[in-house]
Amino acid sequence: MYPEDLKYTSEHEWVRPGASVRVGITSYAQDALGDIVFVSLPAVGDTVEAGAAIGELESTKSVSDLYAPVSGEVTARNEALDATPELVNSDPYGEGWLFELTPSDPAQVEGLLDAAGYQAQLDT
Amino acid sequence: MATDTSEPHRSPLHARHTDLGAKLAPFGGWEMPLEYAGVVAEHKAVRSAAGLFDVSHLGKVVVTGPGAAAYVNATLTNDLDRITTGQAQYTLCCDQGTGGIVDDLIVYLLAEDHLLLVPNAANSAEVVRRLREAAPAGVEVRDEHHDHAILAVQGPASDTVLVGAGFPTGHDYMSFTRATLPTDEGDVAVTVCRTGYTGERGYELLAPASAAPALWDALLAAGGEHGLVPCGLGARDTLRTEMGYPLHGQDIGPDVTPVQGRLGWAVGWRKPEFWGREVLTAEKERGPERVLRGIRALGRGIPRPGMAVLDAAGAPVGAVTSGTFSPSLRTGVGLALLASSVAEGDEVSVDVRGRNEAFAVQRPPFVDAAPR
Hints:
By secondary structure, chain A is α+β, with helices and mostly antiparallel strands. Chain A contains five helices and nine strands; from the N terminus they run E-E-E-H-E-E-E-E-E-H-H-E-H-H. The longest helix of chain B is centred in the middle third of the chain and has 12 residues, at about 210-225. At the A-B interface, strand 6 of A face helix 2 and helix 7 of B.
C-alpha cells in the first residue's frame, strides 16, 4: 500500500530517489497527525545533517519535528504549503511534498527503508 | 489522586463511532471520538451549519429530596436564585479551604427538590463524593454517569435540524424542555437544553443510554441535508478555545480559583454560603496575583499548553494553558495564566520551542459567535 518507487525513514518520511531527492511524510504520518495547519520548512541553501530536526509540522492538536532523511543541501521547498498546508493531508505523495535536497552521499538514500521494510516497521 | 488503570468507559454510541471510522482518544477515563473527517472540516461545519457531538462522557449527577436546591445553592458557587425551574446554570464546585476549582459544571433546576448536575467526566466521582459527604438528611446524591447519553447539536442550523427530528426548539438560552423520541422500544423522554460549549447557537439532548443510538440516528438523518456532520472532541476543543471557554484540567483546576480564572460571574458573591466563600472573597478584595487571559498570535506562532509567556523585557509572566490553531482565524489563539501586571492590549511573547513569537493579550472570544 506504500508506493514502491519511494524510500522511507523510521520517522515516517518518504524520499523520492534521484540526483535531487524530494521529501514528504507518509500517509500513515499525515493520518496520525490529523489536520496539518502549519508547516515550517528549511530554507533553500541550508546544509542539513541526516537525522537533524530541520522543520515542524503543526496540526490542530500537536506539533512534530521534521527530520532530514539524509545529509545534503536543500534545493527547493514547497511554497504552496504556506497558504495550503492541508495539501500534506490530501495528497501526501504529490502536491503535499515538503522539500528537496541534493544528497551529499547518495549511498544514504539507498540505505533507507523500502516500502516493504516501512510496512513491516508499522506492523510491529 | 487515585489513578484509574482499568479499561476506559465507552459511550453507548461506541459502535456508531467505529462504524463512521472515528479516531478515538481517551477523555477523562472515557474512550471518545476525537475526529471523524478531520478537526478543521468539523470545526467549520459547526461555525457555518451544524455539528453533532457525543458528549456522553460528561457526568450526570441527580440531587433529590426536600431542600435539594437549597443544599446545592449552599455549596456550589453560582446563585440558583438567578434562575427558575426549567433553566440551567453554569456553576463551580470549589474547595472549601483553598477556593480552587474542583470542577465546573452545569446545573439543571428541574424542581426545588430535583436537580441534575453535569460535571466533567474526570471529576464527576469527586463532585459526587463531596456533595454526598456534606448532604443533609433527606437529600440524596445519585451518580447516574452511565444511565444517560448526552448529544450536542451545535451551529446556526441547529434549530432546523431539531425541528426535522421532531424536537421542540426556540426556547431561551440556558433553558430546557422535555420531549419524546419514538423508538422501536417505545417512546423515550428526551431533555432538550439550549446549552453548549462551542459558542454557536445549539442544543444538548439528554436521553436514556439505551435510546442513544436511536437519538443519534434521528439527528443525523434529519441534519444531513442541512450540513450537519458528526464532530469529535477535537473540534469541540478548537471551538471552545476560539471562544476562550476554559477547560477544566487545563485552564482551570484545583490550583486555580474562580477569581484567577475570571469566572467571578459564576459566583454568587452575595450568598451567605458556598464552598470557598471566605478565601475567595478575600482574594477578590485584595486582587488575584495571576489571571487567565486570552492571547492571539501576531505572527505564525501556535501556542501550546505549558509554554512560557514573557513580557516585553523578556521576563517570565506566566504560562500557556490552552492553545491551538484557530481554523476560523487561521492563526494561533490560546489562554494563559498571566501575572496580574499584564493587561489586555499588552504585547507578550511565547517561547514556542525556543523561538519567541509575538502575541497580543486579548479578551476572548476571538471570533464573532452568537450562542444565545
